[in-house]
């Protein structure tokens, strides 16, 4: 089955009991058992629920893994994956991962005895040099948030396999429509499904897919033991969102391309970060592992222009955290999504106070460009 057909028909796409073409919302905590001590398919909804199972099997098939798992948020999914490790284990982390992932690492996981080294995962030597006797995994995002840096997943996975490390990829920005990390050698792929997979800013959810059965059993055990599962209503909504992923991603990408061209030729813009920028140093890797450029881009205004005036002048594009939805969203990482990172580290990692991140929606592109144009005029101090 080709990818776009899988979106509609993979996993569990119909209700086994009634043939309903949408798996219903099984709003139940428990299930009647027919014999004492039997092995029912479902016994309690933290352990398993048919609506959740449907979306878990769907993401499993979309990412080409052996098992999928749905969580109450992307952060819960990330926490569940890090729960594979024990006090004293060491993990190598990309230096441009989601702000909340750094918060989880620095304020929770380190306290519990996990060790981390932060590196630029684009630099294989940096990754290799960070490997210690107790290193268990490399954790990365590509493209990164918000600087759209691209890491060669296959190259990292090779280093990982040579050194007995798990390669874990947060695939939120690309989605499996554009990039399939397990096919490139990664062991675990995860998502904040609150973004492109849900796609409508109406849901908070996380997904994990693993490459082998053993990892599947471990993640499944932890999902049940920790209990941060996705409820049946949100599982249903997420499956509904995923069905239109292909058409949405095509529309996001088309608009982002047009906005990149507009910004690229604009006097008021100092810098643009966009996976589709052919001049960018990472573009070779983009061509190697991505089937498209996605809908995210970041940019900096020229010195002297007011970020505040620009942002507040936007009328169609909404000032909000989050991304990957049908409506265009804009935010300033230094103040919003990446505000929890200490300023010194944030600046060192290239996230300036002037950086603006745009999640390009699927509105008519002319309206978006018109909106940017009038807001740039108002940004003049
Ligand atoms: C939003 C996001 C997360 C966290 O997911 P939540 O669903 O908000 O908990 C993790 N990684 C990336 C790349 C994200 O954009």
From TrEMBL:
Residues recorded as bearing N6-(pyridoxal phosphate)lysine in the entry: 195
An annotated Gene Ontology molecular function: cystathionine gamma-lyase activity
Keywords of this entry: Lyase, Pyridoxal phosphate
Annotated InterPro entries: Cys/Met-Metab_PyrdxlP-dep_enz, PyrdxlP-dep_Trfase, PyrdxlP-dep_Trfase_major, PyrdxlP-dep_Trfase_small
Matches recorded under PANTHER family: CYSTATHIONINE GAMMA-LYASE, TRANS-SULFURATION ENZYME FAMILY MEMBER
Family per similarity comment: Belongs to the trans-sulfuration enzymes family.
Name this protein carries in UniProt: Cystathionine beta-lyase cystathionine gamma-synthase
Organism: Liquorilactobacillus sucicola DSM 21376 = JCM 15457
Taxonomic path: Bacteria, Bacillati, Bacillota, Bacilli, Lactobacillales
């Amino acid at each position: 089955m080709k990818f776009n057909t899988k979106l509609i028909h993979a996993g569990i796409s119909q209700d086994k009991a009634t043939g309903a073409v949408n798996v219903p919302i099984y709003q139940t905590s428990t299930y009647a058992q027919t014999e004492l001590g039997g092995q029912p398919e479902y016994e309690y909804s933290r352990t398993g629920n048919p609506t959740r199972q449907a979306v878990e099997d769907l993401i499993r098939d979309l990412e080409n893994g052996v098992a999928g798992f749905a969580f109450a948020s992307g952060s819960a999914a990330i926490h569940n994956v890090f729960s594979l490790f024990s006090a004293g284990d060491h993990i190598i982390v990309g230096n441009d991962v989601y702000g909340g992932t750094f918060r989880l690492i620095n304020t929770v996981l380190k306290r519990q005895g996990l060790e981390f080294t932060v590196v630029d995962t684009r630099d294989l030597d940096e990754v290799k040099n960070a490997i210690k006797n107790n290193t268990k995994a490399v954790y990365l995002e590509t493209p990164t948030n918000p600087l759209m840096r691209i890491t060669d997943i296959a190259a990292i996975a090779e280093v990982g396999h040579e050194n007995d490390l798990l390669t874990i990829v947060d695939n939120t920005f690309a989605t499996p429509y554009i990039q399939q990390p397990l096919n490139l050698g990664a062991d675990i792929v995860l998502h904040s499904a609150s973004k492109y997979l849900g796609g409508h800013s109406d849901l908070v959810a996380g997904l994990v897919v693993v490459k082998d059965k053993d990892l599947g059993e471990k993640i499944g055990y932890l999902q049940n033991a920790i209990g941060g599962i996705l409820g049946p209503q949100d599982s249903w909504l997420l499956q509904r969102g995923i069905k239109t992923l292909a058409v949405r991603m095509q529309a996001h990408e088309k608009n982002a391309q047009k906005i990149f061209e507009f910004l690229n030729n604009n006097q008021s813009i100092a810098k643009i970060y966009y996976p589709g920028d052919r001049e960018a140093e990472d573009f070779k890797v983009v061509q190697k592992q991505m089937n498209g450029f996605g809908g995210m881009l970041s940019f900096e205004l020229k010195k002297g222009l007011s970020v505040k005036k620009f942002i507040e002048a936007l009328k169609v594009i909404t000032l909000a955290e989050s991304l990957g939805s049908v409506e265009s969203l804009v935010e300033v990482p230094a103040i919003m999504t990446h505000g929890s990172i200490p300023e010194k580290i944030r600046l060192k990692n290239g996230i300036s106070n002037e950086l603006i991140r745009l999640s390009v929606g699927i509105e008519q592109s002319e309206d978006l460009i018109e909106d940017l144009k009038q807001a740039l005029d108002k940004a003049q101090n």
